[in-house]
Design goal:
335 residues, alpha+beta, Immunoglobulin-like, 3 domains, five-stranded mixed β-sheet, 9 helices, iron, Cupredoxin, electron transport, transport, Cyt_c_oxidase_su2
């Protein structure tokens, strides 16, 4: 290998840590592409730590190069003691104290209080899906949904985090930091999105079984669109006018789906599984792992244990083709 080739390979290895840091700067679930107040503060802290770490990395490489290439001879004890005290004691003390003070100063920003009468959303983690309960000011009954959180842009929204079984963790990297959901406790998080968009979140605490397939979406929209969406979400389903959809509703009830699921406005009132009142207009299915359309609805009903092994819903693979299409059409119509 030529001298130029050796220098190229050496430079590539020296810059490897930087490429690793920059690789995660973008993406649907990147903490380094912030779209909210809290996420920006966290990203700034990360970049401060990354820049500091890179500077220290360069200094260490420089000292190593100096010792090996420029002054390879044995050095006296005073020089060695100075390097140990300066680089091994003073420098880490200053750097770590500065970063610790900076991170503590972010606390009030990340836990900012919301105004009286602001929207509250209760998120309950369950194995392996999310129950979402909207608590609008002045309204006694919550508006129940599942697996996606709608918020108005430009407004802080208080998220009340609970768990119904084991410890989960709620994390939407582009909007805020992660926080655990502990059985028997209510933790608090404030979300605020600066611009409309769809942001992916994830359970960030191993909760058994298909934990990796326990995602959700936060959908940020204008206050006008959010108010319209919330008004529609509060409504029960209307009578199915089509004979096909009427057969689908009867099939849903007679097959026992209503034992676990609620569809407001029908006899289905189960609470074990997600509320399906408006499942047809959700962004995704099965806690964020499938797109929402009639095909994936049918596939989930018939083969959910293949798509998400270990979840608590059995696969209904006994439906014949026509019955499965009818049931999927009914679920898709729940807009």
């Amino acid at each position: 290998m030529t001298a130029g080739g050796r220098r190229f390979h050496l430079g590539r290895w020296l810059l490897l840590p930087l490429w690793g840091q920059l690789a995660g700067c973008r993406g649907i679930q990147s903490a380094l592409a912030p779209s909210g107040t809290a996420a920006r503060e966290i990203a700034a802290l990360w970049w401060s730590m990354a820049v500091g770490a890179f500077i220290i990395y360069v200094i260490v490489l420089g000292i190593a190069f100096y010792a090996v290439r420029i002054r390879p001879e044995r050095h006296g004890s005073p020089a060695g003691y100075g390097l140990i005290l300066g680089g091994g004691v003073a420098l880490p003390l200053v750097v770590l104290s500065t970063l610790l003070t900076y991170s503590f100063s972010l606390g009030p920003t990340l836990r900012q209080p919301v105004a009286s009468g602001a929207l509250q959303i209760e998120v309950i983690g369950k194995q392996w899906w999310w129950e979402i309960r909207y608590l609008p000011p002045g309204q006694k009954q919550p508006i129940v949904s599942a697996n996606e959180v709608h918020i108005p842009i430009g407004e802080p929204v208080e998220i009340l985090l609970k768990s119904a079984d084991v410890i989960h963790s709620f994390w939407v990297p582009p909007l805020a930091g992660k926080i655990d959901m502990v059985p028997g406790r209510t933790n608090r998080l404030v979300l605020q999105a600066d611009q409309p968009g769809t942001y992916r979140g994830q359970c960030a605490e191993y909760c058994g079984g298909p934990h990796a397939l326990m995602a959700f979406y936060v959908i940020a929209e204008t206050p006008k669109n959010f108010a319209l969406w919330l008004e529609q979400e509060a409504q029960p389903v209307k009578d199915r006018g089509s004979p096909l959809l009427m057969r689908g509703q009867r099939l849903f009830i007679n097959s026992g789906c209503g034992t676990c699921h609620t569809v407001r406005g029908t006899p289905a009132g189960g609470r074990f599984g997600p509320d399906l009142t408006h499942v047809g207009r959700r962004y995704s299915l099965a806690a964020g792992i499938l797109p929402n359309n009639i095909g994936t609805l049918a596939g989930w009903v018939a083969g959910n244990q293949i798509l998400k092994p270990g979840n608590k819903m059995p696969s209904f693979n006994t439906f014949e083709g026509e019955a499965l299409r009818t049931l999927a059409a009914y679920l898709e119509s729940l807009q």
